[in-house]
Amino acid sequence: MTATDPASTPGRSLPLDPSLAPPGTRQFRDAGGIPADRWHADQNGETLVPTHCCFCGVQCGMYLRVDRGGKVFGVEPRNHDINRMRLCPKGINAYQQVNHPDRLTAPLMRRNRDEEFREVSWDEALDHTVAEIRRIQGEYGNDAFGLLGGASLFSEKTYLVGKFARIALKSRHVDYNGRLCMVSAAGANKLAFGIDRAGNPFSDILLTDCLLIAGSNVGECFPVMTQYLWGARDRGATLIVVDPRETAVARTADVHVALKPGTDSAFFNAVLNVVIAEGLTDEAYLAAHTTGWDEVRKTVADYPPSRSAEICGVPEEQIVQVARMFAGAGKAMAWHARGVEHHSQGVENCLTIINLCVATGNIGKPGAGYGTITGQGNGQGGREHGQKSDLLPGGRSITNPEHRRQICEIWGIDEAELPLAGTSMMEMVWQMQRKEIRGLVGICNNPFVSLPNYATVKDGYDTLEFHAQFDFFLSETAANAHVVFPVTVWAEDEGVMANAEARVVKHNKAQEPPAGVRTDTWVMCELARRLGAGDKFDFPDSRAVFEELRIASAGTVNDYYGITYERLEETGGIAWPCPSTEHPGTPRLFENGRTYHPDGKIHLQVVEWHPPMDPYSEEYPLSLTTGRTVAHFLSGNQTRRLGALVEQTPRPWVEVHPSHGFRNGDPVRVVTRRGSEVFPALVTEAIRPDTVFVPYHWPVPTAANALTIDALDPRSKIPEYKVCAARIELAERVDEVPAPPTAPGHQAYPETQVSRTDPLPPTSPQGRGTAERS
C-alpha cells in the first residue's frame, strides 16, 4: 500500500476482500474500530487513557486510544517503569477485545441444557438465578451452592467474590482459578517467610551477578520481563535456566539444566548438597536468621549429585556447576514459575529453591533474593483478599478465631454467620460429581479448558442442577451453563491489580460498556440485594469497594490501607505492605533480616523428593508436560478470537525429539491414562527425548488438559499439570481445532478462523531442530 492508495485515505474503507484485508479488519471496523494498518497514528479528537495490560503478571503499562465517539480503537506503549515502552504480541492486540463482534451484550438463559440459549432481560436472568440458589440451598443446605472466581479480576472484584460467597450465599464453597497458578509458591512463601509474595522487585534483577530461572518460559509467557534478564546479562550476570525444554531464554543461558519433569526437588537438594560440601554456605546468616537448618542439612546429605543426576536425567557435573555458579556469585537471585509449581509436590519444589537462596545468604538485598513469576494479571492480588477457600481479606486465615472476629466486625455480621474453610477448585468439581455441590456461579474462569482431566470436569459440571457464568465472551464453560451474564472487559471499568512484584497498579476506564452489559461488581451486588443481603453490598462502583478493602486489610500482612487510587495514579504503583498514606510501600522484603513470622526467622523446611503421581510403565514410558505459547493466554477464550494471534498460532502441536522418527507435521497421537488426541508434530532437538510438550490454550478435541492428571499437591491443592505418563504413536490425521463458542445469532468471523485448519504446527519458537514448514 502507498501513501496515495485510496485505502489509506481518511474516511475511505479498506477492501472487503478477506484476501486483501488483514484478518479481522472488516469486523473490527464495522464494530467501530479503526483498522490496525491505518497509516496515520493519530486522529482529531483522540484521547489516550493510561492503563495496564489485562494479561500476565508483568502488568505492562499502555495507553488505550479512544476516538471522539468514546470507543477504544487502538493501543500505544507507555513508558511505565515496568515495561519501558515494550508490549508483547498479546498486549498489542488486547484492545481488540473491547469492541469485538463476539462480545456478549445480553443475558443468555435456558431452563435445561437440552434447550438453546435465548436472550432475556436482566430481571429475568437475575430472578431465575436467585430462585435456583434459594431452591438448591433450601433443599440441600447452604453449602450445596458454590462460587468460583478468577485471578484476572480486579482486586476489588476478588474481594467481592469472597464476601458474596460468605454473606450472600452463606456458603463455605468459594475458590478461584488462581488455584491453578501460584498457590504452591504461596504455600512455600508462607511456610518459610510468613508472607505470600516475591521478595524482590523486577529491578533487582538488573543488579544481580547470577540469575537462576526455574520452570519459567519467560520469553513466551512473560516476554517483556525478558528486558530485565538481558539487562543483567549486559552487566555480566551469569544465567542458569532449569527446564526440560530449551526455551528461547534457555538457549542463551550459561547453563541449561534440561531435567526430567517431576524431579525439581531432587535437583535442588543436590545443588544444596554440593554447596554445603564445598563450604559455600553463609553460616553466619543461617545462625542469625533461620530455624530448621540442621534438619535440612541432614536431609540433603542423602542427595549427592550422583543420586540426583540419575533421578533427574542430567549430568552429575552440571549439578556441581550450578552449585558453584550460584553460591560463588557475589549476589544471586532465583525466580520460578509454573514449571516448578504445577506438581504434586509443588510446595516442596519451591521450598528447595528457598533453602538454596537462604543457605547462601541471598535474601533481602539489592540483586540478591527470591521471586515467583505470576501467571495471571492479578495472580498476586487475586488471592490476597478473600476469594481463596481458606483466606479472608488481608490474607487472614479463615480458621484463626481472631482473624474471623476482625473481619466479622468490619462486615457487620456475627461470627457464627461466617462459614468455615471450603475446598479447592478441583475438589469442588469432585464434589459436583458426588452431588455435594449442586449449584454454581462462575466468574472469570473457563475450567473446561483450564482444569485437568477434562472428562471428570465435564461430568462434574453436567451433574450440576444449576450453573451461572459471568463472562464477556461465551467460553466453553459458559456455553454449558444455564445462565450467562454479559459483563465488562477490563477497559470498561477501573480497579487495581497486584503484579508479580506485589506492586499494586491501577487500571483506568477507557470506554463505556455496550448497552446491556454490566460490571461484575453490579451483578454481584444486585444478586446480593435480591438474596436479602443488599445492605452489605451497597457499592456503586469499584472505588467504593476499594475503600472497604483498604479498611479490611489494615494491620494485616497484606496491608493496602496506605494505597489510594490517587497515590497509584501519581506514583505508577505501590508495593504492599503499605500501612499508611505516608508510607512509600515495600518493594523489597527482609532488608532488616526479619520475616513475618512472630520470631522474625526464616523457617527452613525439610523436603524429600517423591516420584510424580502418574507412574511410568512400558505402556506409558514418556513424560507429557504442558505450557503456554507467546500468542495465547491461559484457556484462550480471549486470544483465540483475535486475528493476528490466531494467525500467529492457530492450533496446538506436540513437540517431539527427532529420536522418535517422526517428521515435522506428522499426525502424532498422544496417549495418557485419561485419553488420546492427535496433534501435528513439531520435531525439535530442544526437548528431552523422554518428554513431549503440548500447549494448553485450546478446548477438546485438541485440549492438552483432556490428557493431564488431576492429582493434587496435598498442601496447595494445585494440579500436577507438568508431568504425566504418556506414549506417542503415528496417527492418520490431526484433530480439528474447534471455533470458539458464540452467542445465538452470531458466527465466529471467518477471517480469524481460516488459519485454524492449517494441519502444520507453527514454526519452532526455540529456533532449533527440524521445524521448517515444507
TrEMBL record:
Q: Does the keyword Cytoplasm apply?
A: no
Keyword terms of this UniProt record = 4Fe-4S, Iron, Iron-sulfur, Metal-binding
Q: Where is this region: Disordered?
A: 1-39, 376-398, 734-774
Which positions carry the signal peptide feature in this UniProt record?
none
Q: What InterPro entries does this protein map onto?
A: Asp_de-COase-like_dom_sf, MoPterin_dinucl-bd_dom, Mopterin_OxRdtase, Mopterin_OxRdtase_4Fe-4S_dom, Prok_molybdopt-oxidoreductase
- Compositionally biased residues, Polar residues: 1-11
Where in the numbering of this chain does the 4Fe-4S Mo/W bis-MGD-type domain appear? 46-102
What is this protein called in UniProt?
Molybdopterin oxidoreductase family protein
